[in-house]
Amino acid sequence: MELKNDLLLRAARGEKTERTPVWVMRQAGRILKEYREVRSKLSGFIELVQTPERAAEVTIQPVDILGVDAAIIFSDILVIPEAMGLPYIMEEGNGPFFPNTIKTDADLDKLRIADEDSLGYVLEAIKLTVRELDGRVPLIGFAGAPWTIFCYMVEGRGSKTFSEARKILYDNPGFAHKLMDKITESTIRYLKNQVAAGANIVQIFDSWAGILPSEQYNNFALKYISKIADSISEVPVIVFAKGAYGSRRSIGRVNCDVVGLDWNMEITESRTLIGAEKTLQGNLDPAALYAGFDTIKAETRKMIDQFGKSKHIANLGHGVYPDMNADKVKCFIDEVKEYSGK
Ligand code: CP3
User: Fold this and answer.
1) Model confidence over 296-328: pLDDT tens digits?
2) How far apart (Å, rounded) are the C-alpha atoms in residues 137 and 195?
3) In the structure, which protein residues have their CB atom closer than 6 angstroms to any atom of ligand 1?
4) Catalytically annotated residues
């Protein structure tokens, strides 16, 4: 399919673009009343994720309403543990919860490698979305990084310390590597299937990267991200490791095209550590969008100036906060387009 707007893909490959492309992590979701309307007609989040027609609809909403330069398939990183045999529940106001977790060798042995059949609903949603987008913008596929998935599979829910998950790295590293291997193999298959279904680029989200010391991060987490990046050669790969300050130099050596920065990662320092070759993505503080429109524009311009006008994909430094006013998000997007195009 010929793309009418391929700014994101060209920037990801390091090519010159007329302006900086922009999208927003978690752009499809509660910030849009149109999303809440679609979701309210279903039993909840999981039914929405598992109904390809509706998932495609909410994937495209931010392209129509916010004017972003890419769509990201509406799904969740937790579909992987589910496909491996650990179903999740999305508790209203409380986030995800896994009734069963991985504690013993027997639990680990029972886990399946996620296959195409168990994730067919995501692949179907991708095919439908690509058809309905009709080449307007590229579609981003995604998966959680193995370390972040490991945390959920061991802890069963989000945590302040993730001490259960971190304990295993010290106590039973062999067990940790075995679980990481299974998640990695599932993720490689999943991302390859997303690409075959039509995803134009993929992002790996390592939301809990920041809780590990850098040596452990490199040995237990980045190693597996690297394996995934090595196995995806058909489309560009974005790695977003939130809080992985001490590993930026190592991330710069991963076989990916784009490195996402969170809002605490200083831009010039990150460029030096990561090197000149890769495209950087990010990194406006999501809380900056609580400000007035003039401040949002000024902060956006400052960000564009710091990154420079090439090898940059504009985004927030993490997902947009669910209580954010959609007009503020649009102000950020419009300002990136206008200012970087001058
Ligand atoms: O627009 C998009 O970015 C695509 C959809 C998307 C969702 N989750 C939908 C979602 C993506 C890319 C994700 C990734 C995800 N999911 C991450 C990594 C990114 C990050 O923010 O660090 C993580 C850690 C999860 C796990 C998860 N899913 C949590 C912790 C929660 C509850 C907190 C929250 O954000 O609501 C979810 C639920 C979830 N995933 C919602 C959405 C739109 C909210 C569900 C609802 O409609 O109420």
Assistant:
1) 999 999 999 999 999 999 999 999 999 999 999
2) 15
3) 25-30, 39, 45, 72, 74, 76-78, 90, 95-96, 142, 158, 205, 207, 319
4) 26, 30, 39, 76, 152
